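for the writeup, i need someone to sanity check this before i put it in the appendix. the sequnce is what the collaborator sent (i think, or maybe the updated version? ugh). structure was predicted straight from it, no edits. if anything looks off just tell me and ill rerun, i have time this weekend
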Amino acid sequence: MQLSHRITGINAGGSDGWGLFYRARQLKAQGHDITELTIGEHDIRTDPLILNHMHQSALDGATGYALIPGIPALRDAVAKRVQDQTGVPTSAANVLITAGGQAALYATHHAVCNPGDRALYIDPGYATYPGTIRANGAVPVPVPARPEDGFQPDASAIAALAKGAKSLLINSPNNPTGVIYSRDTLQGIARVVQDNDLWLISDEVYDTQIWEGEHLSPRALPGMADRTLVIGSMSKSHAMTGSRLGWIIAPEQAITHLINLATNTNYGVPGYIQDAALFALTLGADFEAQIAAPFRRRRAIALDLLAGQNAVRAVRAVPPQGAMYMMLDIRATGLDGNSFAERLLDEHQIAVMPGESFGPAAAGHIRVAMTIPDDPFRAALQTVLDFANSLVVTVE
């Protein structure tokens, strides 16, 4: 018996990009003291206020089947939130509640791509992007964003690959680079999308983590609301990663069909989790700023350490403008990202993600998640920098 090509081909016969993370977790389970700067998981847990509301909702009976598109009050709240943030008219009819942002990524590509269609995405990008596209039977096509351009996507590079494609996936603020796509970048993307009749899928799950500049949703650009599907989530904004609560904002016709997909896949999100998300949204912008504050502090710590390197300056970075990550350029060490990360784990018990996990455009880089308390973060990053500088001295 053979399994389907669709499922056996999700990783195209290669790695899913998480090998070093799995190895670090295995070492930790064996009792090794590993400092993890790998995944985007807050070092605080979901606020007890939210958990208490979730618990009470379950006790009050919200443990049965919930409405598949999402409970009306939550769809209304998400629509209002998006409209207030972007200025684009948005109603509950434009909202589907999903089991986290990852389910939304899958569903949006399912909605706009047929089997065999070419689906573009920006490289570097989140490690699941190409696998999500393949899981839908489409063909992932990376569009490199060069470190020399500050990882800002170039419209001409997208246009060169856009002919005959069906969709483009972007992510700003960006995981893994921390870059926020500029207005000029997004306007260029919008022109290419319209000129080539593409759907745009915009992953905006880090939109509450803005350190520098502004976040602009491309759905707000002229002519884009009818061809853009936006992905949002409670995971990063409210430290609710395990609750698996996300959403899609899309034209009403697309939402109608996406509800059919939800009916035939996970059949909705538990009601008590939706109630908790609705409550969490009422906590307001100040609460969201509190959730984001540790990453702002650690960004400042990291930039200070980078500026204080010795004359060798083996590590360089495009300063992150948003999100909870830094992408560090370690090419001066002579190692690629995989080799550097493996040696760092073996020799210093610090786990980071190789840039290659996020696409060839990030080769020779590592991604550092700013997700441990300030003092240990400072110490770990200093070790990373010292290790990198020692390699350059060794080579010379």
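The two ends are 56 Å apart (CA to CA). The mean pLDDT is 96.
thx in advance!!
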